[in-house]
Fold:
Amino acid sequence: MKTIARLRYLNIAPRKVRLVADLIRGKSAKEARRMLSFVVKRSAKPILQLLNSAVANAKNNFQTDESNLYIAKIDIDGGPIRKKWRARARGSAARIQKRTSHISLFLQEIDEKSSRSKKAAELSADQSKDKETGRTPRQQRPRFRSASKTARPVSKQDAKKMFRRKAF
Structure:
């Protein structure tokens, strides 16, 4: 069961809207709502309104609980471009393009099958841990250089190269 909500002709460029959409893609509805309320970008408010609309559609039409919904897909497409002109030097003109966006938000209910497969994937990841350290390969400690190698002493010859003066 998919719930679809669409917002068309939003007066924000699609590449700016995609920055916010990438943050919430795949998240649960509650978590996405929480994230969008704190994002400072201008496109966060219309996406939050669209998410609220999609959740209300799911509750009304399919009697689903908000805690079971997640963002299955969010598409941002370019809408029509309004073209304007601005006067420039020597009687010429520069074109200004006001881009618009179309947003499609797809909510889906979390099934128990998919949650079981996620748990199985987590269990298999736990089994692939290194037996000595007890860590997965991604959790291995980063290797840092020692302080003696990073901070090398500056000699007079280096200073000459740096300042390019003969009398130093």
